[in-house]
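Figure-free illustration: sequence to structure, shown twice.
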Amino acid sequence: MGRITAHDDLARIEAALDLAAEALDPFTPGAIASRMKDGDDPVTAADLAVNEVLLASLPRADEGWLSEETADDADRLSAQRVWVVDPVDGTREFIQGIPEWCVSIGLVIDGRPAAGGILGPTAGHRMVGSVDDGVRLDGRPAAVTSCSDLEGALVLASRSEVKRGEWEPFFSTPISVRNMGSVAYKLACVGAGLADATWTLVPKHEWDVAAGAALVLAGGGAVFGPDGEEIRFNQPNPKLPGFVATAGALESPLRDFLKEFRIN
């Protein structure tokens, strides 16, 4: 097999998102049964149906696989290229009929996010990109915003974190906070220039973050951990302590701003 290019990866992601859309077609957001998995997370037949088509279409023999809906296989740790997938990120929103959920497909190469695709069928957006080729929003070129000032910067916050009061310290600061479900979708919005930044106050799994992180980097933004560190993927324990994603021009003032707060 010849060298795989970023163009090849994006074509595979686009095709996989098409298959995911077909798998979702029989299901109606807001009118679907669910059950609880270990850890008090809901799962639906739609999650499993999308996982099945993505697993069948994405990984090749020498590539790893990490998905919320598949038992983890340590063989992925020796793979250079690993698909990190959340078949339905924002399952709670999907169950409730809130249009803030998505299919999330990330490609990690040597531990770093390289390409990603996000499909938000209800919201009507598809964001696809790679660090080599940039981002496309609904088929058009896109990028992170040019925002460089915290005053009025649009920051997307976790709906559940806001409900628990964890974002209260930020409401008296210059930023503008908007609640939204789905970690992956929030990240994709930053990568495609629909928001200026987002961060999480609690640990997240790699499948929540990988695709969106790739899109933020592809769009010219920055992604880092709660202490400013680089985030590495395909770890034995695929859980991150938290993350920050921002437009590139906002990175420096945001780093200074967040030093005043404990965000994880």
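We now fold a second protein in the same way, so the two outputs can be compared directly.
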Amino acid sequence: MTTTREIPFFNYRGTFAAIEPELTATFRDVVSRGAFILQQDLRDFESACAQYLGVRHAFGVGNATDGLHLALRAAGLREGDEVLVPAHTMIATPSAIHFAGGIPVPVDIGPDHMMDPGALEPAITPRTRFIMPVQLNGRTCDMDRIQAVATKHSLTIVEDAAQALGSRFGGQLAGTFGAASAFSFYPAKVLGCLGDGGLAVTNDDGVADRLHQLRDHGRNRDGEVVGWGLNSRLDNLQAAFLHLQLKRYDAAMQLRRTLAAAYHEELGTVPEVVLPPGPNDDARHFDVFQNFEMEAERRDALQLHLKSCGVGTLIQWGGQAIHQHPKLGLKAHVPVTDRFFTRCLMLPMNTLLTRDDIAYISACIRGFYGR
């Protein structure tokens, strides 16, 4: 390598520039109609999402954290109920549990960095009522084993599918395995808006009625206030932006899978790194590669080396698992997670990357390890 490239971890300005004329036209259309809150653009987007996921009900909400909070309450979470959650997740996951009245209980992860189904039963107590699998980095957990535990112990599943729109396990889409789930439309997501946004979905009509009320001040479909609720409605303008991008979502997913395969081709023989499962490693999984999170020896030094090469990287969530924030009091024995957070590093993964970018990033990594 004779020249240093500049490859940001995520190019926010570039994602706007790539479809600027269409976004601008959408903006002018929506604002010229004065369509801002709970208008037809949102209803159309919700219907498109429900059809895409094959679910009966989809509700645009302010963000995925709100979506998880509302989904838990709508699914029947009671004050003091314990919810099993992987230690490897964003603080938003246990935060939603906490503010819904529950108690988050972290469990360990498996070799694929997802919730370890084998860690669930040892964590169950008489107060355990829910399991919240986190469909992380665009991959879906082993839901067969998780559902088996839930059925055996009469536990309710509510999925954190924030990073997994379009991901599948056993042919079934993430977000459709439990009583309810939530997705994120944060700008860096595969389907991202120009601000905060989220979606809560369910196939249960009763849960859907409660979700409808909870996101809009406790009002039912006739506008009558039937209980206490919150104000968490996906902005109509953001819904229009998202609907525009949903129409090309399958192409975005396939490009990410192609880029992930390129990383595996370039780095698969480097013994100092452990890559996430490849796109064709397991026929049960269809990963959408929201992120490309690997393990690396001498992680911190590698990150500095990549920075010197102009490559942006990220240690997810500031390098802390949820139980590693002392003031939250989430104590857990999760040795796999603890070791993982000394080694994890996310490489650039977005639709603005090229195959040449992947080759350059990989060459920098190989060079660091003298390979």
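Summary for the second example: The chain is about 35% helix and 15% strand.
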